[in-house]
Design brief:
- Strand 4 and strand 5 form a beta hairpin.
- This protein has one domain: Immunoglobulin-like (Sandwich).
- Helices cover 27% and strands 26% of the residues.
- The N and C termini lie far apart (60 Å).
- Helix 2 (75-84) runs antiparallel to helix 4.
- The chain is an alpha+beta fold and 217 residues long.
- The strands form two sheets. It has a nine-stranded antiparallel β-sheet. A three-stranded antiparallel β-sheet has the order 6-7-8.
- It has helices at 8-28, 75-84, 125-133, 153-170, and strands spanning 53-58, 64-71, 90-97, 109-113, 119-124, 136-137, 143-144, 150-151, 181-188, 199-203, 211-212, 214-215.
- Residues 1-24 form the signal peptide.
Length: 217
């Protein structure tokens, strides 16, 4: 059986189209699609459901952040919380490796989301919690706890000093310069994290747009 010959012009179109396809596909591929995540980084929510544990994020400025959510409470903070009768909190820690970062990184806020849309916010341990737990020295020269409990001068002075020491110890623990490493301790004003998590939003550079961490492998 014989086949009719393909016209020369048509043959050239076929050949040129086949040869140009790979390059054309490359040229048409999006370069900076924000929905495309690199390892340890998600610029948008993944719409997946996962449980508590270890999460990681490589920020757009190159900082590598590994978070444990929830984390065991630091013994000194938890002992002080119990001593002053503050409400239970949940802790998280973050290891920050900013050796490849181009600017200082700071753990301003971490927000968890559950399938019902509830939020669970972790903030700096010192500013948002320790600084509020210590006794207040009133105009009447009395030390009072937040619940109104009066303390004798000796106890009040001791707790006030302990509060100041802890505040200074953990203040800005998550602020790490470029080329450096550090660790952050953060707290959430809730007793436990949700069993199902739909997002971990990290604000590592102030109140700008968050970046989203993903579960570690």
């Amino acid at each position: 059986m014989r086949f009719a010959p393909i016209p020369v012009a048509a043959a050239l179109v076929v050949v040129l189209g086949a040869c140009g396809s790979p390059q054309a596909a490359q040229d048409e591929a999006p370069v900076d699609d924000p929905a495309v995540a690199t390892e340890g980084q998600a610029l948008e929510p993944t719409q997946e459901i996962f449980g508590p544990g270890e999460f990681e994020l490589t920020t757009a400025d190159g900082a590598q952040i590994t978070m444990q959510i929830p984390a065991d409470p630091p013994a000194d903070i938890e002992a002080f919380r119990e001593e002053v009768g503050a409400e239970p909190v949940t802790y998280m820690t973050a290891q920050l490796d900013n050796r490849k970062g181009s600017t200082a990184v700071g753990m301003y806020q971490v927000t968890l989301y559950d399938p019902e849309g509830n939020t669970y916010v972790f903030e700096d341990a010192s500013v948002s919690h320790i600084g509020e737990w210590g006794p207040t020295y009133t105009e009447d020269y009395e030390y009072l706890l937040n619940d109104g409990t009066k303390l004798d001068e000796s106890t009040g002075e001791a707790l006030s000093s302990q509060s100041t020491d802890l505040y200074n110890k953990y203040l800005n623990s998550g602020n790490v310069d470029a080329l450096a490493k550090g660790e952050a301790v953060m707290m959430g004003a809730f007793e436990e994290v949700p069993e199902e998590i739909t997002g971990v939003a990290v604000q590592a550079y102030g109140m700008g747009e968050p970046e989203y961490a993903v579960p570690s492998d």
